[in-house]
Design goal:
homodimer; alpha+beta; Nucleoside Triphosphate Pyrophosphohydrolase; Arc Repressor Mutant, subunit A; seven-stranded mixed β-sheet; three-stranded antiparallel β-sheet; DNA-binding
Chain lengths: 234, 234
DNA sequence: ACAAAAGTGTTAAGGCTACACCCATGG
DNA sequence: CCATGGGTGTAGCCTTAACACTTTTGT
């Protein structure tokens, strides 16, 4: 059969907003762009979609190239297609966002791309419309984290309640009451208490917890209320 | 400057999931596909993105062509790019979904496309991955409507509480208690009571309400709780 | 023994659900 | 006058937010 012959074809890229938590701060992974235009400027990691790969597949490939990581949390965010967004040639970009535990993977970064982790709150200017993508990812993260247990994707397999709370506080740039916080978290039934304490950051030590994976997967899409007054914080 | 010369270009389409409410039932607008492959089969309305238009723009153009309507509620849903999704040539499709008041626009449909409104619950088989798009739109609609006043986009400027409740019941395929429903709706402060009754569907007549537009726009993104037990219904 | 962080309980207020009766009107 | 759908109130329960003291242990 014929192709749709009269139509114009476009480049399709995927761009990844890669966020990581190191136990204290939320960070974003950026690369120094290797091609013109804007060579040497900071940019999201991205790449062109290849003839035989799907969009999710392309995003996973790009992530793997950069971080050596596979099977981390990733979801499609939004597609950007303003005609002028890439000045060289019109490119439609499908943005993905990725959450990972930064403590584990810090050192595995590919040298090839001159990648660097920046504080999400204070990162360099980005090329094209990447800043808009990052803003959208931030607001989506806050929105989703207020309703679903998505932030666990940023933590190690075992973690303490204080660590979890710091993460929430970092994401929402605010402080929560630890009594209410722990009650709310525990009431979800998502956490299993381990018989082991983290003793680095305090004398008393804080119990480790891990996710109840089955419960987590089964209830991930349920609407919970992790955040006291979400509308003030989103 | 040079183009990104070694990369493959692809067709980009937009496909619109157009939902309407006629006061009683939720419907979806489908067209008989005009081109091969699958000519004559039912399909979402779509079209190829043109060289100088953005994605949103393309979606609006497609919607305008089909319905004569402009400025109705529309948002980007998701992009679909599996290599085999269109058997003729690889096409990435950006799906949009649209909500409109069906009572107003029923008759303005373009003849050119042989469009028809179907019950959302019971529509014909669709080509390609359009069924998947419709399913995603349905679940997104339920999700979003449980948290945001999005369903008002499906109603006329003035409407009665019973009409609004029917709409919610249609969307969630369940029944709600009218006392709790009206209390919840009214407590949002989104509605203004008019001094006028709808007398078609009852002897007593039901008061018309309209949206408080300012309040609506300002609070649209706030998280509300329209639905009693959303997790059972999503 | 003290400093530093972890862990835990209570109360009061507001929100939620379940539930049943009266109202207005057209026929 | 009665059938039909519209409109409203309350009581009990649960959830939430606000709030402060005790525990552990390394130094």
């Amino acid at each position: 059969m014929n192709k749709y012959s009269k139509q114009t074809r476009f480049l399709i890229a995927v761009d990844c907003i890669i966020l990581g938590f190191d136990g204290a701060e939320l960070k974003i992974l950026l690369i120094k762009r290797g091609l013109e235009p804007e060579q040497g400027k900071w940019s999201l990691m991205g790449g062109f979609v290849q003839p035989n790969e799907g969009l999710d597949e392309a995003a996973n490939r790009v992530l793997l190239q950069l971080t050596g990581l596979d099977k981390v949390y990733m979801e499609q965010l939004h597609s950007f297609g303003e005609p002028g967004r890439d000045p060289i040639e019109r490119t439609i970009s499908v943005a993905y966002f990725t959450l990972l535990d930064l403590t584990k993977y810090k050192t595995q970064l590919s040298q090839e791309f001159e990648a660097e982790w920046f504080l999400l709150k204070k990162h360099p200017k980005l090329i094209f419309d990447h800043e808009q993508m990052v803003q959208l990812a931030k607001s989506k993260l806050r929105y989703k984290a207020s309703l679903h247990p998505i932030l666990f994707e940023l933590l190690a397999d075992k973690f303490t309640l204080p660590q979890l709370q710091s993460l929430f506080e970092e994401v929402y740039e605010t402080a929560f009451d630890k009594r209410n916080f722990s009650r709310k978290i525990m009431s979800t039934g998502l956490l299993l208490k381990l018989n082991e304490k983290e003793k680095e950051s305090s004398k008393k030590g804080a119990y480790y917890y891990k996710l109840d994976k089955k419960h987590y997967k089964a209830n991930f899409h349920n609407i919970l209320r992790f955040i006291p007054n979400p509308n003030e914080l989103l």
